[in-house]
Amino acid sequence: MSTKHTATAKHPECLSMTGYAQARHEKHGWAVRVTVKSVNHRFLDLKLRLPEGFDLYDLRLRQIVRERINRGHLEIYVNAEPGTAAPVQVNKELAQAYLRAAESLMHGTSAAGKLDVVSLLRLPGVIAGSNGTVPEGVEDQEKLGKAFETCLREALTKLDEMRRAEGKHLVAELRERLARIAGQVEQVRGLAASLRPVFARRLETRLRELLGGTAIDQARLAQEAALLAERSDISEELDRLRSHLQQFTKLLDGAGELGKKLDFLLQEMHREANTMLSKTPGVESEALAITGLALEIKAEIEKLREQVQNIE
Q1: Is the pLDDT reported for residue 244 higher than 80?
Q2: 0.70 exceeded by the pTM?
Q3: Residue 91: Cβ-neighbour burial (10 angstroms; 0-12, 13-18, 19+)
Q4: For the chain, what is the radius of gyration of the CA atoms?
Q5: Same domain, residue pair 114 and 189
Q6: Looking at the structure, do residues 154 and 237 belong to the same domain, yes or no?
Q7: Would you say 23 and 162 are in contact if contact means Cβ atoms under 8 Å apart?
């Protein structure tokens, strides 16, 4: 158990929901091709497109996808054609019918020319199975189903490789933004500590203007200054922001389905940044600097949210 935990911690996996992959197999007389496209979505939104008449394979292929993919909008295209090794069976009755129709057309009109063998073989249905119909026998149907499954699994494996590579790139960008926000939070903390005496000076100046030359009660002044500073105190918001940043990093260091958890954390971080802005009044240089940093933090959080939308 401990070995498994250590391996997970050392090799965290974050999957992007964006990817593209294709696989091709030729087996049991069929050439099968599966193409997978994936983009972000809140849930698993699967669009599976099989050739006309192949719906009997729909459920088993959907189940394979659900076992591998948790979230994302997936478009999967499955194509099946007789392979090069498939035996060629000519529908002679249909070919004769084409020939009779061609002869009748030539006799009844001024059309000239003959229907050669190569052109005849290209006509729909002349070569049995060339129109991609499902095999009639149960055993042959099962063989084709296995070919579909093998090809789909290979395509999904390639998709995972691409999503994993994109996920690593996303995580690197997220960590850079987290580090930037952490630095901005500490800058705000330093500026906030210098605001208490600023509030006291502003309050004293305002009271002197109101009272004229009357003496000011210093105890009352200190009390009012403390109340003003308390209403503008953002230390709790800064502490919660730092805690959210730490939680965010821990999630990135783990593995599994991260997108929804990260999005929730970012909503909380956005709320703390808004509260900082509302609790930092005044036009003093320190307050203006805090306002500027809080706006930068909000902008970074928005960029984080855009990127997190693409994480499974």
Answers
A1: yes
A2: no
A3: middle
A4: 35
A5: no
A6: no
A7: no
